[in-house]
Amino acid sequence: MNTAIVTGATSGIGEAIAETLIARGFRVIGTSRNSSAVVDPIPGVDYRDLDLTDPASIRAFVNGIGDTPIDVLINNAGESQCGPIEELPIEAITRLFQLNVFGAIELTQAVLPAMRERGRGRIINIGSMLASFPLAYRSSYAATKAAIKGFATAARFELEPYGIDITTVEPGSIATGLSARRTKYCGPHSPYLRDFTTVIARLDGKEAQGISAETVAKTVLRAVEDKKTLPIYAVGSNAPAVFLAQRLLPRTVLEKFTARAYGLPSKRAVN
What we know:
single chain; alpha/beta; Rossmann fold; seven-stranded parallel sheet; 9 helices; oxidoreductase activity
């Protein structure tokens, strides 16, 4: 039986991935900040504590795995954040990178030696289409997803000779209730407040109509089972057409389309 680690396995995409892998016959180690508080555990999932913002928690989790051979690592755990770049607290950005990027890289480093020795393994990072199509007031979040994708895309060349595949799944808008949990940084007297409110309202609306976590999980399963992974698996938000437009249209044209779609002015008058 193959073993997979799924971080953030208690809700949303992570929960759907864990269910999908269990149904496929995997042994799943699912992580949560507090595994004892899981309300509706998935039968067959081995829940363990992991706080990716805490280096000691990461070390304890890795030590707890011991010599268990890990066939698949799904780096899914993460948080969302939004706000004008001028007003994002540097401490909040640092924490977001620790959670969305550095913790995932540390877990990847932990499982690689055994994968390399066995000559096989698969690592899948859950990114976001915002890494490829950044949006105003999502700079910190988009940067974390671009970073994790950059690590994976470059590492593919390093790991392929050892039989290890690493890739990124980039979902578009997803209806998982993430909008309500997104941390917002924009003061009540911010000069950006009007545009920020417009953009986030439209973003929330698109996410409410987005694809399901189960749809993303099916794409992740494809990445797990493909004979050779693609560098990126994009799903949702009309991904094929959007990525085609990215290849064919100048970047400035895409920026204008994006600004118009989210109600942003091309230039704000200075009082």
